[in-house]
Write a structure and sequence with these properties.
CATH class: Alpha Beta
CATH topology: Rossmann fold
Bound molecules: adenosine-5'-triphosphate
GO molecular function, one term: ATP binding
Radius of gyration: 19 Å
Organism: Psychrobacter fozii
Oligomer: single chain
Order of helices and strands: EHHEEHEEHEHHHEHEHEEHH
Shape: globular
Largest sheet: 6 strands, mixed
Distance between the termini: 32 Å
Structural class: alpha/beta
Protein name: Glycine betaine/proline transport system ATP-binding protein
Strand content: 15-25%
Keywords: ATP-binding, Nucleotide-binding
InterPro entries: AAA+_ATPase, ABC_osmolyte_uptake_ATP-bind, ABC_transporter-like_ATP-bd, ABC_transporter-like_CS, P-loop_NTPase
Strand order of the largest sheet: 6-7-8-3-9-10
Number of domains: 1
């Protein structure tokens, strides 16, 4: 079952629709984004991305710096609007009851009860962000003058949950990420790894079915990063969230991703399980990543 579908998504930064059309005509002829930038001056964020993310899967988006990973993930919660294309999200899915079969072929239809995120008005977009998608940021994004408890409970306050109830929920999630007894601390009293556990607890406390993780572990030391990867996998065994996880590291992608999508110059080169990519790489770019892994 698909949870998220990106359909023909292109993003040409800072271009009018006429300018974007001529840029996309060059891309359609096969010109790569570096040559397009040189010829037209416009940056290609993404070009003609078609991507299905299944309900309950941990889907990694991988690629070198500038390949379009952040641009892609920011479309899903509409921090960025595309130049063209559609973004479907099935808001009827409760991932906690959905078990994914990573080998199941992606359906060819759009998700069954899907909304086009691009058509949401301001109020519906706010509701979508509060009830459907949560984000974990690379640099944690915690509010410095709020305690750990207040940070984790923040998303629940806007839902008008009582103080007692939201503190109970926040305490539960702090416990789940291995941070009991720190609720009265402030972010700057914690290590980077601890701060990101708070970031994770904050995202999980909302109970939203989709989790967007933008290089969430990249700022951490290798040992701490490995611990957080293990913790994420352990939580995911029980929670079955739909997770879109951005990384520039193939090791991380292979460790945590059930499927991996590889971007190059704003184009989606291949989506597959780590085994698919290893045994049937779509091109040399993918093959090189997988060789670097072996
Ligand atoms: N706000 C912006 N204005 C203009 N160009 C942009 C903007 N944001 C990104 N780009 C360009 O779009 C392309 C994709 O950038 P993006 O940040 O999505 O890549 P990325 O894979 O996330 O890179 P990194 O790993 O370095 O974060 C790059 O060429 C980048 O320079």
């Amino acid at each position: 079952m698909n949870h998220i579908r990106l359909e023909n998504i292109s993003k040409i930064y800072n271009a009018s629709s006429t300018q974007a059309k001529s840029v996309m005509a060059l891309l359609a002829e096969g010109m790569d984004s570096a040559a397009v930038k040189q010829q037209t001056g416009y940056s290609v964020g993404l070009y003609d991305i078609n991507l299905d993310v299944k309900a309950g899967e941990l889907h990694c988006i991988m690629g070198l710096s500038g390949s379009g990973k952040s641009t892609l993930i920011r479309h899903i919660n509409r921090l960025i609007d595309p130049t063209s294309g559609k973004i479907w999200v099935d808001t009827s899915i409760d991932t906690q009851t959905t078990i994914t079969d990573a080998d199941e072929p992606a359906a060819t239809q759009k998700p069954s009860a899907a909304i086009n995120v691009l058509e949401l008005n301001d109020q519906d977009l706010q509701h979508y962000r509060q009830q459907t998608v949560s984000m974990v940021f690379q640099h944690f994004g915690l509010v410095p003058h709020m305690t750990v408890m207040q940070n984790v409970a923040y998303g629940l306050r806007v839902r008008k949950m009582s103080t007692e109830e939201r503190h109970e929920v926040a305490r539960h999630w702090l416990n789940e990420v291995g941070l009991p007894n720190l609720e009265h601390s402030y972010p700057d009293e914690l290590s980077g790894g601890m701060q990101q556990r708070v970031g994770l607890a904050r995202a999980l406390a909302t109970d939203n079915p989709i989790l967007l993780m933008d290089e969430a572990f990249s700022a951490l030391d290798p040992l701490i990063r490995a611990q957080l990867q293990d913790q994420l996998l352990e939580l995911q065994e029980r929670l079955h969230k739909t997770i879109v996880f951005i990384t520039h590291g193939i090791d991380e992608a292979v460790k945590v991703g059930q499927r991996i999508s590889i971007l190059n110059g704003g184009r989606l080169v291949q989506t597959g399980t780590p085994n698919d990519l290893r045994h049937n790489p779509a091109d040399d770019y993918v093959a090189q990543f997988m060789r670097a892994k072996a």
